Protein backbone atom coordinates (compact mmCIF):
# COMPACT_ATOMS: atom_id res chain seq x y z
CA UNK A 1 0.00 0.00 0.00
CA UNK A 2 1.35 3.43 -0.98
CA UNK A 3 2.28 5.61 1.98
CA UNK A 4 0.36 8.88 2.21
CA UNK A 5 2.51 11.91 2.98
CA UNK A 6 0.83 14.70 4.93
CA UNK A 7 1.68 18.33 4.15
CA UNK A 8 0.37 21.33 6.06
CA UNK A 9 -1.04 24.39 4.31
CA UNK A 10 -1.57 27.85 5.82
CA UNK A 11 -3.22 30.54 3.72
CA UNK A 12 -3.19 34.30 4.16
CA UNK A 13 -5.24 37.12 2.63
CA UNK A 14 -4.27 38.98 -0.51
CA UNK A 15 -3.32 36.51 -3.24
CA UNK A 16 -3.08 33.67 -0.71
CA UNK A 17 -5.98 31.67 -2.13
CA UNK A 18 -4.56 31.95 -5.65
CA UNK A 19 -1.12 30.88 -4.48
CA UNK A 20 -2.59 27.99 -2.47
CA UNK A 21 -4.47 26.77 -5.56
CA UNK A 22 -1.21 26.72 -7.53
CA UNK A 23 0.51 24.80 -4.75
CA UNK A 24 -2.23 22.16 -4.60
CA UNK A 25 -2.29 21.62 -8.36
CA UNK A 26 1.47 21.27 -8.74
CA UNK A 27 1.92 19.04 -5.68
CA UNK A 28 -0.97 16.79 -6.77
CA UNK A 29 0.44 16.49 -10.30
CA UNK A 30 3.94 15.64 -9.09
CA UNK A 31 2.57 13.03 -6.70
CA UNK A 32 0.53 11.52 -9.52
CA UNK A 33 3.52 11.37 -11.88
CA UNK A 34 5.57 9.58 -9.21
CA UNK A 35 2.85 7.23 -8.05
CA UNK A 36 2.72 8.82 -4.60
CA UNK A 37 -0.11 9.91 -2.36
CA UNK A 38 -0.18 13.28 -0.61
CA UNK A 39 -2.82 14.64 1.73
CA UNK A 40 -2.92 18.38 2.40
CA UNK A 41 -4.06 19.50 5.83
CA UNK A 42 -5.13 23.12 5.65
CA UNK A 43 -5.35 25.40 8.64
CA UNK A 44 -9.01 26.33 9.24
CA UNK A 45 -8.13 30.01 9.67
CA UNK A 46 -7.32 32.39 6.83
CA UNK A 47 -4.68 34.71 8.24
CA UNK A 48 -4.51 38.44 7.75
CA UNK A 49 -2.05 40.29 5.58
CA UNK A 50 -0.95 43.74 6.71
CA UNK A 51 -3.17 45.32 4.06
CA UNK A 52 -6.23 43.31 5.11
CA UNK A 53 -5.71 44.38 8.73
CA UNK A 54 -5.59 48.02 7.72
CA UNK A 55 -8.62 47.65 5.51
CA UNK A 56 -10.64 46.07 8.30
CA UNK A 57 -10.16 49.18 10.40
CA UNK A 58 -10.89 49.54 14.09
CA UNK A 59 -7.67 51.32 15.01
CA UNK A 60 -4.44 50.19 16.62
CA UNK A 61 -5.99 48.12 19.40
CA UNK A 62 -8.14 46.14 16.98
CA UNK A 63 -5.11 45.51 14.77
CA UNK A 64 -3.10 44.35 17.78
CA UNK A 65 -5.85 41.96 18.84
CA UNK A 66 -6.20 40.38 15.39
CA UNK A 67 -2.42 40.11 15.15
CA UNK A 68 -2.30 38.20 18.44
CA UNK A 69 -5.15 35.92 17.37
CA UNK A 70 -3.49 35.06 14.07
CA UNK A 71 -0.18 34.38 15.82
CA UNK A 72 -1.74 32.17 18.48
CA UNK A 73 -3.71 30.19 15.90
CA UNK A 74 -0.78 29.64 13.53
CA UNK A 75 1.52 28.65 16.40
CA UNK A 76 -1.05 26.09 17.55
CA UNK A 77 -1.43 24.80 13.98
CA UNK A 78 2.33 24.27 13.68
CA UNK A 79 2.48 22.54 17.06
CA UNK A 80 -0.37 20.19 16.08
CA UNK A 81 1.28 19.35 12.76
CA UNK A 82 4.57 18.55 14.47
CA UNK A 83 2.88 16.46 17.16
CA UNK A 84 1.19 14.41 14.45
CA UNK A 85 4.52 13.75 12.72
CA UNK A 86 4.04 16.12 9.79
CA UNK A 87 7.36 17.48 8.59
CA UNK A 88 6.41 20.11 5.99
CA UNK A 89 4.03 23.04 5.81
CA UNK A 90 3.59 25.49 2.96
CA UNK A 91 2.51 28.98 3.97
CA UNK A 92 1.44 31.88 1.80
CA UNK A 93 2.33 35.39 2.96
CA UNK A 94 0.71 36.68 6.16
CA UNK A 95 1.13 39.78 8.30
CA UNK A 96 4.78 39.95 9.37
CA UNK A 97 3.99 41.01 12.92
CA UNK A 98 1.91 37.88 13.51
CA UNK A 99 4.47 35.72 11.78
CA UNK A 100 7.40 36.96 13.83
CA UNK A 101 5.58 36.37 17.08
CA UNK A 102 5.35 32.73 16.02
CA UNK A 103 8.96 32.63 14.88
CA UNK A 104 10.10 34.01 18.21
CA UNK A 105 8.07 31.47 20.19
CA UNK A 106 9.15 28.52 18.04
CA UNK A 107 12.78 29.66 17.57
CA UNK A 108 12.73 29.79 13.79
CA UNK A 109 15.56 30.31 11.32
CA UNK A 110 15.27 30.92 7.59
CA UNK A 111 17.66 28.90 5.43
CA UNK A 112 18.79 29.75 1.93
CA UNK A 113 21.45 28.10 -0.19
CA UNK A 114 22.89 30.31 -2.94
CA UNK A 115 25.33 29.21 -5.61
CA UNK A 116 27.18 30.88 -8.47
CA UNK A 117 29.85 28.82 -10.23
CA UNK A 118 32.29 27.61 -7.58
CA UNK A 119 30.92 30.04 -4.97
CA UNK A 120 28.42 28.83 -2.39
CA UNK A 121 26.73 30.67 0.45
CA UNK A 122 24.66 29.13 3.21
CA UNK A 123 22.62 31.96 4.70
CA UNK A 124 20.89 31.30 8.02
CA UNK A 125 18.65 34.16 9.13
CA UNK A 126 17.98 34.56 12.83
CA UNK A 127 14.20 34.96 13.03
CA UNK A 128 13.93 34.11 16.73
CA UNK A 129 15.34 37.29 18.24
CA UNK A 130 16.17 40.90 17.47
CA UNK A 131 14.15 43.89 16.34
CA UNK A 132 11.81 41.87 14.13
CA UNK A 133 10.59 39.98 17.18
CA UNK A 134 9.28 41.39 20.46
CA UNK A 135 6.22 43.21 21.76
CA UNK A 136 4.89 46.73 21.34
CA UNK A 137 3.67 49.01 24.09
CA UNK A 138 1.73 52.11 23.08
CA UNK A 139 1.47 55.44 24.82
CA UNK A 140 0.10 58.80 23.65
CA UNK A 141 2.07 59.45 20.48
CA UNK A 142 4.77 56.94 21.50
CA UNK A 143 5.48 53.31 20.65
CA UNK A 144 7.97 51.26 22.70
CA UNK A 145 9.21 48.01 21.15
CA UNK A 146 10.92 45.52 23.47
CA UNK A 147 13.16 42.86 21.97
CA UNK A 148 15.28 40.11 23.48
CA UNK A 149 18.56 38.40 22.66
CA UNK A 150 19.46 35.11 24.33
CA UNK A 151 22.75 33.26 24.66
CA UNK A 152 20.94 29.90 24.43
CA UNK A 153 19.04 30.93 21.30
CA UNK A 154 22.18 32.34 19.70
CA UNK A 155 24.10 29.14 20.38
CA UNK A 156 21.24 26.97 19.08
CA UNK A 157 21.22 28.93 15.82
CA UNK A 158 25.00 28.66 15.45
CA UNK A 159 24.80 24.91 16.14
CA UNK A 160 22.04 24.55 13.54
CA UNK A 161 24.09 26.45 10.94
CA UNK A 162 27.11 24.29 11.67
CA UNK A 163 25.11 21.05 11.36
CA UNK A 164 23.54 22.20 8.10
CA UNK A 165 26.94 23.23 6.70
CA UNK A 166 28.45 19.85 7.58
CA UNK A 167 25.53 18.09 5.89
CA UNK A 168 26.02 20.19 2.75
CA UNK A 169 29.80 19.77 2.70
CA UNK A 170 30.62 16.38 4.25
CA UNK A 171 33.99 16.19 2.47
CA UNK A 172 35.73 18.84 4.56
CA UNK A 173 35.63 20.91 7.74
CA UNK A 174 33.62 24.09 8.08
CA UNK A 175 36.29 26.79 8.09
CA UNK A 176 34.33 29.54 9.83
CA UNK A 177 30.92 30.97 10.57
CA UNK A 178 30.33 34.68 10.04
CA UNK A 179 27.80 36.45 12.26
CA UNK A 180 26.27 39.62 10.81
CA UNK A 181 24.64 41.59 13.64
CA UNK A 182 24.54 45.18 14.85
CA UNK A 183 26.36 43.93 17.93
CA UNK A 184 27.72 47.35 18.99
CA UNK A 185 24.27 48.01 20.43
CA UNK A 186 24.37 45.03 22.80
CA UNK A 187 26.94 45.97 25.47
CA UNK A 188 29.43 43.34 24.31
CA UNK A 189 27.17 40.41 25.19
CA UNK A 190 26.88 39.03 21.66
CA UNK A 191 30.66 39.22 21.24
CA UNK A 192 31.13 37.14 24.39
CA UNK A 193 28.51 34.60 23.27
CA UNK A 194 30.20 34.25 19.87
CA UNK A 195 33.54 33.55 21.53
CA UNK A 196 31.94 30.95 23.81
CA UNK A 197 30.24 29.28 20.84
CA UNK A 198 33.50 29.21 18.91
CA UNK A 199 35.25 27.42 21.79
CA UNK A 200 32.32 25.05 22.32
CA UNK A 201 31.98 23.98 18.69
CA UNK A 202 35.63 24.10 17.71
CA UNK A 203 34.96 26.37 14.73
CA UNK A 204 35.89 30.07 14.37
CA UNK A 205 32.74 32.17 14.89
CA UNK A 206 33.54 35.66 13.64
CA UNK A 207 31.24 38.55 14.56
CA UNK A 208 31.02 41.51 12.18
CA UNK A 209 28.93 44.62 11.79
CA UNK A 210 26.60 44.33 8.77
CA UNK A 211 28.40 47.04 6.81
CA UNK A 212 31.69 45.18 7.30
CA UNK A 213 30.14 42.00 5.91
CA UNK A 214 29.01 44.02 2.89
CA UNK A 215 32.47 45.52 2.37
CA UNK A 216 34.08 42.09 2.59
CA UNK A 217 31.70 40.66 0.00
CA UNK A 218 32.46 43.57 -2.32
CA UNK A 219 36.22 43.46 -1.75
CA UNK A 220 36.77 39.69 -1.76
CA UNK A 221 33.87 38.42 -3.80
CA UNK A 222 31.67 35.46 -3.03
CA UNK A 223 33.13 32.71 -0.83
CA UNK A 224 33.83 29.22 -2.09
CA UNK A 225 32.05 27.86 0.98
CA UNK A 226 30.56 30.60 3.10
CA UNK A 227 28.32 30.37 6.12
CA UNK A 228 26.62 33.55 7.33
CA UNK A 229 24.31 33.68 10.34
CA UNK A 230 22.58 37.03 10.27
CA UNK A 231 20.06 39.07 12.13
CA UNK A 232 17.02 39.96 10.06
CA UNK A 233 17.91 43.63 10.34
CA UNK A 234 20.62 42.88 7.73
CA UNK A 235 19.50 39.69 6.03
CA UNK A 236 16.00 40.81 5.10
CA UNK A 237 17.33 43.86 3.27
CA UNK A 238 20.31 42.07 1.73
CA UNK A 239 18.46 39.00 0.49
CA UNK A 240 17.41 40.55 -2.82
CA UNK A 241 20.99 41.81 -3.34
CA UNK A 242 22.48 38.39 -2.61
CA UNK A 243 20.02 36.75 -5.01
CA UNK A 244 21.19 39.14 -7.69
CA UNK A 245 24.91 38.67 -6.98
CA UNK A 246 24.55 34.88 -7.01
CA UNK A 247 22.53 34.95 -10.23
CA UNK A 248 19.61 33.32 -8.45
CA UNK A 249 17.05 35.61 -10.03
CA UNK A 250 14.31 37.75 -8.55
CA UNK A 251 12.50 37.38 -5.26
CA UNK A 252 9.23 36.69 -7.08
CA UNK A 253 10.69 33.45 -8.43
CA UNK A 254 12.31 32.27 -5.22
CA UNK A 255 11.23 30.26 -2.19
CA UNK A 256 12.92 29.62 1.12
CA UNK A 257 12.55 27.27 4.06
CA UNK A 258 12.13 28.04 7.74
CA UNK A 259 13.30 25.48 10.30
CA UNK A 260 12.00 25.50 13.87
CA UNK A 261 14.47 24.86 16.69
CA UNK A 262 12.00 24.68 19.59
CA UNK A 263 11.89 21.07 20.88
CA UNK A 264 8.09 20.91 20.53
CA UNK A 265 8.25 21.46 16.76
CA UNK A 266 11.79 20.35 15.89
CA UNK A 267 11.80 18.78 12.44
CA UNK A 268 8.88 20.82 11.08
CA UNK A 269 10.00 22.80 8.03
CA UNK A 270 7.93 25.69 6.71
CA UNK A 271 8.22 26.54 3.03
CA UNK A 272 7.27 29.98 1.74
CA UNK A 273 7.54 32.13 -1.32
CA UNK A 274 9.83 35.12 -0.89
CA UNK A 275 7.29 37.48 -2.43
CA UNK A 276 4.63 39.00 -0.19
CA UNK A 277 0.84 38.87 -0.15
CA UNK A 278 0.53 41.15 -3.22
CA UNK A 279 -2.89 42.45 -2.15
CA UNK A 280 -2.80 45.00 -4.98
CA UNK A 281 -3.20 42.27 -7.62
CA UNK A 282 -5.62 40.06 -5.69
CA UNK A 283 -8.25 38.59 -8.00
CA UNK A 284 -6.53 39.71 -11.22
CA UNK A 285 -5.13 36.27 -12.03
CA UNK A 286 -1.65 37.69 -12.62
CA UNK A 287 0.30 36.52 -9.58
CA UNK A 288 3.66 34.99 -10.57
CA UNK A 289 3.44 31.24 -9.72
CA UNK A 290 7.13 30.34 -10.15
CA UNK A 291 8.16 30.50 -6.48
CA UNK A 292 5.11 28.45 -5.46
CA UNK A 293 5.81 25.88 -8.18
CA UNK A 294 9.37 25.47 -6.93
CA UNK A 295 8.25 25.19 -3.32
CA UNK A 296 5.76 22.47 -4.28
CA UNK A 297 8.52 20.59 -6.10
CA UNK A 298 10.86 20.83 -3.11
CA UNK A 299 8.20 19.50 -0.77
CA UNK A 300 7.28 16.71 -3.21
CA UNK A 301 10.91 15.61 -3.49
CA UNK A 302 12.00 16.03 0.11
CA UNK A 303 8.88 14.95 1.95
CA UNK A 304 6.71 12.87 -0.40
CA UNK A 305 9.17 10.56 -2.11
CA UNK A 306 9.00 12.22 -5.54
CA UNK A 307 12.66 11.86 -6.47
CA UNK A 308 13.68 14.18 -9.29
CA UNK A 309 10.66 16.46 -8.89
CA UNK A 310 12.75 19.63 -8.53
CA UNK A 311 14.74 18.92 -11.68
CA UNK A 312 11.59 18.04 -13.60
CA UNK A 313 10.04 21.37 -12.63
CA UNK A 314 13.15 23.29 -13.65
CA UNK A 315 13.13 21.61 -17.04
CA UNK A 316 9.44 22.44 -17.49
CA UNK A 317 10.04 26.08 -16.46
CA UNK A 318 12.89 26.31 -18.98
CA UNK A 319 10.58 24.97 -21.66
CA UNK A 320 7.93 27.55 -20.79
CA UNK A 321 10.48 30.37 -20.80
CA UNK A 322 11.64 29.30 -24.25
CA UNK A 323 8.06 29.49 -25.48
CA UNK A 324 7.49 32.92 -23.93
CA UNK A 325 4.91 31.59 -21.48
CA UNK A 326 4.79 33.74 -18.36
CA UNK A 327 2.83 36.20 -16.28
CA UNK A 328 3.11 39.93 -17.04
CA UNK A 329 5.89 40.53 -14.50
CA UNK A 330 7.95 37.91 -16.36
CA UNK A 331 7.40 39.69 -19.65
CA UNK A 332 4.60 37.37 -20.73
CA UNK A 333 0.91 37.82 -21.40
CA UNK A 334 -0.46 34.77 -19.64
CA UNK A 335 -2.59 34.50 -16.53
CA UNK A 336 -1.51 32.54 -13.48
CA UNK A 337 -3.83 29.69 -14.40
CA UNK A 338 -2.64 29.60 -18.02
CA UNK A 339 0.99 29.44 -16.94
CA UNK A 340 0.29 26.63 -14.45
CA UNK A 341 -1.74 24.75 -17.07
CA UNK A 342 1.20 24.95 -19.46
CA UNK A 343 3.63 23.80 -16.77
CA UNK A 344 1.52 20.79 -15.81
CA UNK A 345 1.29 19.80 -19.47
CA UNK A 346 5.07 20.08 -19.81
CA UNK A 347 5.93 18.15 -16.64
CA UNK A 348 7.59 14.79 -17.13
CA UNK A 349 9.09 12.54 -14.45
CA UNK A 350 12.83 13.09 -14.17
CA UNK A 351 14.64 9.75 -14.11
CA UNK A 352 16.58 9.19 -10.90
CA UNK A 353 18.56 6.01 -10.19
CA UNK A 354 17.25 3.89 -7.34
CA UNK A 355 13.96 3.99 -5.45
CA UNK A 356 12.13 7.27 -4.89
CA UNK A 357 12.72 8.27 -1.29
CA UNK A 358 12.19 11.55 0.57
CA UNK A 359 15.06 13.91 -0.05
CA UNK A 360 17.31 15.08 2.76
CA UNK A 361 16.02 18.54 3.77
CA UNK A 362 19.66 19.68 3.94
CA UNK A 363 20.04 19.19 0.19
CA UNK A 364 19.51 22.34 -1.88
CA UNK A 365 16.93 22.52 -4.64
CA UNK A 366 18.46 23.37 -8.01
CA UNK A 367 17.76 27.02 -8.74
CA UNK A 368 17.58 29.21 -11.76
TrEMBL record:
Annotated segments matching region Disordered: 348-368
Top-rank lineage group of the source organism: Bacteria
Record field: compositional bias (Pro residues): 350-368
SUPFAM superfamilies the record matches: Isocitrate/Isopropylmalate dehydrogenase-like (SSF53659)
Isopropylmalate dehydrogenase-like domain ranges (all copies): 6-343
UniProt KW keywords: Manganese, Metal-binding, NAD, Oxidoreductase
Keyword Protein biosynthesis: no
Any one Gene Ontology molecular-function term assigned to this protein's record: metal ion binding
Cofactor: Mn(2+); Mg(2+)
Protein name according to UniProt: Isocitrate dehydrogenase
The organism's taxonomic lineage, starting at the top: Bacteria, Bacillati, Actinomycetota, Actinomycetes, Kitasatosporales
